[in-house]
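<goal> How does this chain fold?
<sample>
Here is the protein in question

***
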Amino acid sequence: MARINSALYDNGPDLIDSLEVDDHPEKYDKERFKCPECLVKIQYNSGVHKLDPHFKNWPNISHKEDCEIEKLQSLQSQNDNHNIQRLTSTILPRAERLQKFSTPQEKQKIIRRYLGRRSQIFLNALISIQDFDHKAIFIRTEDRQSIPIADLIMRQDQIVQKLDLDNKPFICILRGYLTTKIDIGNNIKIPLTYGGKYQNKHKFDIFIPSSFKEKNINKINQIEKSLVYCYGLAEKNEYGYKMDLYSITHQISKIQ
């Protein structure tokens, strides 16, 4: 089995990211990791020089024949593109994950966990892959769907349409062209281009909450007036359509 970034631990219901194990190895018994799909025993590996943590097969234990992760990665087994391997090894959270919070504190906890280093690695690999490959490369999602990467990448009009239709926030990768920042009290928003030559009918903003302003302020000029991917939670409130940005480093990659 090719390596993957997440595993189940013991009898718990939640996925554990290999980066989390790398950060806190003392919290985990390395004998208790399981494949998220077929539940066979797998092992944690910190990678070469302890720089690439991941999960891989436990020696002499095979995955079950109907393991969807195994099937997907077998499709890419002949591909020597390292970035494609990184993409297919990632299990991304979907809307179900972020719907499980009832307080702002729970939301922040989940966002910090799932919009961190893993998304940075994924986005950096994504920008190296040509657009026509996005429909051919399938990944596994946390709600056990096998989808082409292209299904996660959306332009602002597509996001607005889905938000209006479903009336609930969802996780996606926004592809859009940022303008320049605007101060909104202690917060910051960065509008996307829209109208006319930009072929986008709806306004959409990247929003940096005040509590994350200091962390990001010195990096904003690096993404202004740029075509980017931004991975996060798309939502609608009384002020319009937006995606919160907590970490430019981890949530955004410049396409050009």
Observations:
- Residues 87 and 126 are 7 Å apart (CA to CA).
- The two ends are 35 Å apart (CA to CA).
